[in-house]
Design goal:
Elements lengths: L26 E6 L5 E5 L12 E5 L1 E3 L3 E5 L5 E11 L2 E8 L8 E4 L2 E9 L2 E5 L4 H8 L14 H6 L7 E4 L11 H10 L2 E7 L22 E5 L1 H12 L4 E4 L1 H24 L11 E5 L14 E5 L6 H10 L1 H13 L10 E5 L10
Helix pairs in contact: 6-7
Length: 363
Amino acid sequence: MRRQDFSYDLPEELIAQTPLAERSASRLLVLDGGTGTATDRVMGELPEYLQSGDLLVFNDTRVVAARVAGLKPSGGRVEIFLERVIEGREALAQLRASKPIREGLEVTTAGGVVRILGREDELWRIEAPGPALEFFETWGEVPLPPYIHRAADANDRERYQSIFARERGAVAAPTASLHFDAPLMQKLDALGVSRVFVTLHVGAGTFQSLRTDDLGAHRMHAERVSVSTVTWEAIRRTHAAGGRVIAVGTTVVRALESAALLSASSRALSLQSRRPLQPLPGEGWSGETRLFIRPGFEFQVVDAMLTNFHLPESTLLMLVCAFAGRENVLAAYAHAVRAKYRFFSYGDAMLVTPTRHPAGVLS
């Protein structure tokens, strides 16, 4: 398959520019991957599709105020967009300026001088005037996605975070979780639906388009992941009892499926070397993932997913197509366009079931 196989037409006016006043008031398109049937619902009706014993898995990453404006000594403007904190005062960032950036440049910001230490692939290594995470949180702005054509305001500080956000480190929100609020969670608790968390710090690369038509040649950006022992054991218990694991967002899908793949790899290497070469998910796992999920991928963990609508030709759309079938997903997207759903980060949601049940290796 090629990039163009995941294209669709989207009118500009359907790209949501602001969040709804009520999180769970979003529309919900339910896609049955087995039949291709799409049903129009609302998020408040999600409990009707779940049952006691099901497990929701959320990403508890917290978005950092990652965008800082500065000036060169010449007076030229520079935008510093955090990718990730390395340690202490150092971080990796994207830099945007009208003229080329050079190593050793000092950029003056409202919070002090940021030094440009050097290039690392497509990013720059920078040194903040103080601890990097605190510097961005104090002086930065909410990093709204590039397709939202307005400046971030005070409301975005709260609405571009999920109610579960606690582990600072993302520069983009895990947007599927933005649809959950306290009243909806109370309904799910009363139903007997459990919840656990993973942490995947979403990087700015989530908005980058593929630069090659050949999917096999694409290299994903690295993202930090942590899957705890508590989460992994809850997944095992859920599958053993016949319940379903529902990933809230593509970031959760990538975190869980990455852990499962690394677990299998670790076991194989352990048999060869007589010692484990990396922690197994049964004991908790953390690291980096570049997993690119596209049609043909064999899912091992996730039984259903809740997700937002994704950009044309994006890796996130390809992930959903791998789960529920490309034709099914693109037909559902065409229906969503006709029905005037709201798209992307502040838009509406989909509940998606697979074309066939995962292998169930964890049960």
